[in-house]
């Protein structure tokens, strides 16, 4: 029954978001983005242990609803995240460690872009619990390379349909001379989410330095209801720029104020395992990006402060993104 309700909501949201994109002149063909995050890159297997998302980004369309010319696009994403405690081989309930949890989700996002800023409004629908198939995915992956066996999934959060509404604003604070091959820029962002999955706010800064910086709005981490893949804001709109190649590094600092996180607080309407979370969490991200004509590849190393009071160690994981403008 839950799956049928979720399907109806997804179809209805698709129609509403499609209607929100105003008619205009298409400026490009669109893009695909694949995002993978996993703590195997840091040699660990705990906490936020796996995340994957595939995104399709529509062609930009010009809009003149205000005095300033802007571009609009929408994106559709499918993804899954997996969370486990520190010791995954234990079969008993580890009361002072985070719950086993997984989510499979679907998002629809509307993006409005100007030369120096981009705003995103996103809707998320997902399923948390056994129906997310997170347990099956982790067990299958571990069986391939004969790693440790996750034995505690029978303690995972119970089935629950979750939703999220997110707004995110990015703006380019400054940028070095446009004609220089070696340049730098600073991108700020602020955003918030409201829903049964996550209610939180975040703000951060991303500094980039390298050759032929793309005219997009940076490379950000995967989070359900947050980012919608690597958008080629300018690069997709100008074919000459889309053929440029370059490489750059970046550092990204972000802080989160968290009121609710279902993966730590437990199920919304049913009793389940939970832990006492910290209300403030910070990330330090170091990464590099390679742009080769219409392809974009990025890798980042992420350090995240402790999210709950009995957490033994901070979170460390790696993030890969591959995007293609077709």
Q: Could you please describe the fold and organization of this structure?
A:
The chain is mostly beta strands and 326 residues long. It has one domain: Lipocalin, CATH 2.40.128. The protein contains 4 helices and 13 strands. It has a 12-stranded antiparallel beta barrel. A hairpin with a 2-residue loop joins strand 11 (280-292) and strand 12 (295-304). The longest helix is centred in the N-terminal third of the chain and has 19 residues, at 2-20. It is globular and about 60 Å long.
Helix-strand layout with pairing:
Elements: H1 2-20, E1 31-38, E2 47-57, E3 61-63, E4 70-84, E5 101-113, E6 117-128, H2 134-144, E7 160-175, E8 182-195, E9 198-211, H3 239-242, E10 245-261, H4 262-265, E11 280-292, E12 295-304, E13 315-325
Antiparallel strand pairs: 1-2, 1-13, 2-4, 3-4, 4-5, 5-6, 6-7, 7-8, 8-9, 9-10, 10-11, 11-12, 12-13
What CATH first level would be assigned?
Answer: Mainly Beta
Number of helices: 4
Order of helices and strands: HEEEEEEHEEEHEHEEE
Q: How would you name the oligomeric state of the polypeptide chains in this document?
A: single chain
Mean pLDDT over the full residue set:
85
Distance between the termini: 38 Å
Molecular shape = globular
Known CATH architecture:
Beta Barrel
CATH superfamily: Outer membrane protein
User: Which band does the percent of strand residues land in?
Assistant: over 45%
Percent helix, as a range, is: 10-25%
Q: What characterizes the major β-sheet? A: 12 strands, antiparallel, barrel
Q: Low-confidence parts lasting 5 or more residues at pLDDT below 50?
A: 1-26, 233-240
Radius of gyration: 20 Å
CATH third-tier fold name: Lipocalin
Quantity of strands, as a count:
13
Number of domains: 1
Within the largest sheet, what's the order of strands? Answer: 1-2-4-5-6-7-8-9-10-11-12-13
Going by helix content, strand content and strand pairing, the class is mainly beta
